[in-house]
Amino acid sequence: MIPAAFDYVAPATVDEALTLLSQGGDDAKIIAGGQSLLPVLKLRLAAPELLIDLAKIDSLRGVRDDGDAIVIGAMTPHFEVVADPLVREHASLLAECVATVADPQVRHRGTLGGACAHADPASDIPAPVLALDAVLTLAGPGGRRTVAAADFFTDIFTTALGEDEILTDIRVPKHTGWGSAYEKFVRVSQQWAIVGVAATVRTDGDSIAEARIALTNMGSTPIRARAAEQALAGVRADADSVAAALTGVAEGTAPPTDLNGDPEYRRQLAAVLARRAVLSAAGR
Ligand code: FAD
Fold it and tell me: Where is the FAD-binding PCMH-type domain (predicted)?
């Protein structure tokens, strides 16, 4: 389990990193926390000749207030996302979800941007990013562009990021007046999600006015359950009414089969977890 030899650079700016990336072409790879990339290298599933470490680029780390949104640097490690007061106040769904990722060791090294760029279908983090309607900023040789989360996760381990681009930040609209919850089903604590559901809900009296739901590990990308979101609008926020509105939450998904379960089992789990997440969110 030793990676193939590679060169290593740690530039101090995004521009420097972009130059190195375009010079390196197919032989260069970005490394953030290394929590997903290093196992890939050790298994020799990839053998880049150059690793470009973003760890010394201060501008990529931290959370800032930007009016109607918070902006989280791509290199912000998971433990900082969980603890950050701005995230906890304006995007608590993200803090709650990231707190369920692995163990403290992984949360101290792994980064929000790395998890989004890696786009593992079983990763917990893309679902809240999608449910919160976040927008991701990508820097490339031609400048910066923004991509909505709904367009960013395109396939299994595949995103809208070009080979010569770097994810610089994730902009999350403030969800003032919304409650939220992340429900994750695992057999053993600190494991990857067998299924996860991120929900954010705005109530009006006893009823649900609006809901956003995104599913983890129910297909090759995180999936917005838009039909279920529409079915919840105007529904009383009680267990029976919410369960009835969520019967179709797994429609259009393509869950995997593995040692943890088959698609039917996962669809059933998604319905149960979605009910729990929506009811928790409505009560917060
Ligand atoms: P890296 O491993 O450094 O990079 C991953 C990929 O993204 C690479 O291809 C890299 O080139 C690319 N990349 C990274 N940053 C950028 C960027 N800014 N721009 C462009 N490309 C970039 N995750 C969960 O969600 N839930 C879990 O329960 C969970 N359990 C885990 C358990 C273990 C034991 C481990 C080791 C990991 C686990 N993870 C889990 C994954 C963890 O969240 C990783 O930190 C994350 O997936 C990758 O983040 P990273 O910063 O380590 O990225």
Answer: 1-177
